[in-house]
Amino acid sequence: MDPRTRLLLEGPIASTLLRMAGPNVVVMVAQALAGLIETWFIGRLGTDALAGMALVFPVVMLMQMMSAGAMGGGISSAIARALGARRRDDAHALVFHALLLSIVFGLVFTLAAWLGGAWLYTHMGGQAGSLQAAMTYSNWVFSGAVLVWLFNSLASVIRGTGNMGLPAKVISWGTLLLLPLSPLLIFGWGPIPAMGIAGGGLALLLYYAGGSVALGAWLLSSRSLLRPRWEDARWRKSLFMDILRVGLAGAVSTVATNVAIAVATGLVGHFGPAAIAGYGTASRLEYLLVPLVFGFGGPLVAMVGTAVGAGRRDRALRATWMGAAMAVALSEVIGLAAAAFPVAWLSLFDSDPAMLEVGSQYLRIVGPFYGLFGLGLILYFASQGAGRLLWPVLGNIARLAVAALGGWLALRWGWGLAGVFGAQALALAVYGGLNATAIARGVWFRD
Fold first, then answer.
1. What is the pTM of this model?
2. Which keywords belong to this entry (predicted)?
3. Which of 22, 141, 215, 292 could be stapled to 154 by a disulfide with Cβ–Cβ 3.0 to 4.6 Å?
4. What is the pLDDT of residues 135-153, one digit of tens each?
């Protein structure tokens, strides 16, 4: 057995999880910063540009969360379970299957955004300048959707072996390069023309292209535990299904999460572009929690998956609750800080008084519930490792129902933005509570 796999099965849980989570948290923070850097620069273009980006952001995050969290988790889980069961040849073959799926899904996202983007952004409240900015940014970003999928699939393959350090290095270096690249393309300099919001989209695609090349080169090197092989380049339904049965269930959960944000954006859109910009900027902090919790969730997928593959159910559950405690503590600290000092976050992106007012109201109401969001999210990742995603999916659908219905009723009954945001907070509580209750009652190991 590979030493890294043995560590996942036999090493002390808490210290192993923390040691693996360290570089993974760094990488996820760096990846989140890539988006925040871009938002900060685009915020200098005005409220319409910021509102346009807020309209597109839920769809971009849907792609990110599906490629890195849902299908990426399916890839990591399948590889970890194969290695835990000592099916080394299957683990090698899973690399080819993962890359093929990433190309297919990337093309689907490109076509969907090109054909349906205008309709979606209009129904989310986009109009005039904000709608034009949204379409420009959307068309640029989604033209390279395959690059985003390839990058996250390659990183998931490597994480499935327990190697969290390499993706951390690649993404961290990529973020450092994005710091000068993004403003250069947005505002121009010397012979390079100013591209405006389109420059932010192009910079992001160059970031993913470079990262894909670096991760691919590693997989082809002799240092990689797994690598693509020509003899594995054939269709094996069982291996596709091993990824898809976890990845597609996770995709449903991811869609529900992002639809909840998109619905809230549409409800807030009744109050104008400044309200959309305020909510969109504030809710970015919620999206920032996703990669932070994934810092613990990525190692947890590998640890739980390896333990389940080896028949170690008790170890899988102990690792799950230890990871949950870490994720809840981190999420709640961030939520409480945001609720106490909302302007410190919001003013990084814009100074419009109406935007600051709406964003502050959201963070004061929803921020204290971020710990329950972190609980639901970390248990989702652990369920990916176990290959049992029914209850996380149901929890996210329940979250969507509470957020959408509650927000609609709040507007109908005249409760305004406070009612809409209150429904979002209740939805997070439902999401975390359902996941925790189900796993505590042993749903993973029932037929």
1. 0.69
2. Cell membrane, Membrane, Transmembrane, Transmembrane helix, Transport
3. 215
4. 888 888 898 899 999 998 8
